[in-house]
Amino acid sequence: MSDLEKLDLSLIVGGKTTFVDGNYLKTNIINHMPRLSKFTFNICSNIYHCNGINLPSSKNIQKTFIDFKDNQIISCVDYFPKIEKGQCLIYSYPYKLKHYDNITNNFPGGLFECVCEVSLYDERPFEYEFFLQISRSFPFMEKLTLINRQRQKNKNKNKNLSIIKYPRLIELNLTETNKDYHEQFLFDTKTCLPNDVRVRMDYRLVKKVTRNFRRNTTRNNCAKISYVLFSNKSNFPEHLKDYFPHAKIL
Q: Which residue stretches of the chain are H helix?
């Protein structure tokens, strides 16, 4: 590959003791391609069994790209103590992929017009400002998956804030979330869901949030759902269909 002039690289790397950074790319790729004139990339590297000692930050990783003049490089580093894992995402901006995975509270922002599929993961709670930023950064997002078991800390402080909209959303997955995120997306005072959205939810949590499917605050968004797949439940009460009048319920 020594004659290669353009390279667009997308990788997920695991099983190493250090993150892939600018120094790694220069040593193992760039220095072996003397004719390379255009290099874009999206690389997620993971390290496991992190002990919390001498772990690099996003700022440390960003410094390794000081010699990369042709592109704007974004670095985002996260550590998850509960699962003893570290994650580092480095990519050329503007971002070209159609998906952006495992976004955390350290998300650096930006505009991602190519992305249509997004997943969110963190061991710290997602608050209102985070969801507002996600809606603005991904205006063409069609699929959204959340994984977060932590309760929101500021959910009762957002009564007068603007309602968040996801105009292109088609699929929403909340099955691995805390009850607060079911509220975040079902309360019409917090979120305006588009019509015909397909949703996966935890039945027990939805029952609590909707007050046994009788709460008015959640009725508008539930009426917009065209397909709902419930986990942790196989038999449904008769009045459930009245609360999801346009949905196929499974």
A: 22-28, 58-63, 128-137, 179-186, 203-209, 219-223, 240-243
Is residue 40 within 8 A of residue 96, CB to CB? The reply is yes
pTM (2 decimals)?
0.92
Beta bridge pairs of residue 72: 93
- C-alpha dist (Å) from residue 50 to 17, 71, 86, 160, 164: 9, 31, 7, 41, 36
Which of 117, 110, 60, 50 has its CA nearest to residue 82?
Answer: 50
Tokens for 85, please give them: 């894992």
Region of 69 (left: φ > 0; alpha: ψ -120 to 50; beta: rest) is: alpha
The most distant pair of C-alpha atoms in the chain lies apart, rounded to whole Å, by 69
Please write the tens of the pLDDT for every residue from 82-97.
Answer: 998 999 999 999 999 9
Residues ≥6 apart with Cβ < 8 Å to 14: 45, 46, 48
